[in-house]
C-alpha cells in the first residue's frame, strides 16, 4: 500500500475509532482511562472506573496500516472528553516525526 494510501487509511481509522469512543462514552458516561485503552472497546474493563452500561463496540483492538495497535491516551485533569490517538507511523517508533496524531474535537 503506497504511503499516501496508508496516511488516508490512518485518517479514516482515527475518525472510526473516535466515533467508537464516543459511543463508549454515551453508554458508559465517560471515556476509557489511558490504562484501559482501546481494549475497552472489545472487552468490558475490570479496573476502575468500570462502566455500568457497556457494550462490545469492536471485535478487536484496531491496528494501523503497518499492523500495529494505535495508542490511546485520555488527558487527565482537563476536560474529561479530551483524548489522543496515535499511530507510530512507518518506523514503528512512537515520538518520531512520522507519527500520526488525532486529538478529540
Automatic annotation (TrEMBL):
Q: Which Pfam families match?
A: T2SSG
Domain (Type II secretion system protein GspG C-terminal) ranges? 6-100
Which InterPro entries does the entry link to? Answer: Pilin-like, T2SS_protein-GspG_C
Superkingdom, according to UniProt? Answer: Bacteria
Region annotation Disordered: where it falls in the sequence: 86-105
Please note every region of biased composition (Basic and acidic residues).
Answer: 96-105
From the Swiss-Prot or TrEMBL record, give the protein name. Type II secretion system protein GspG
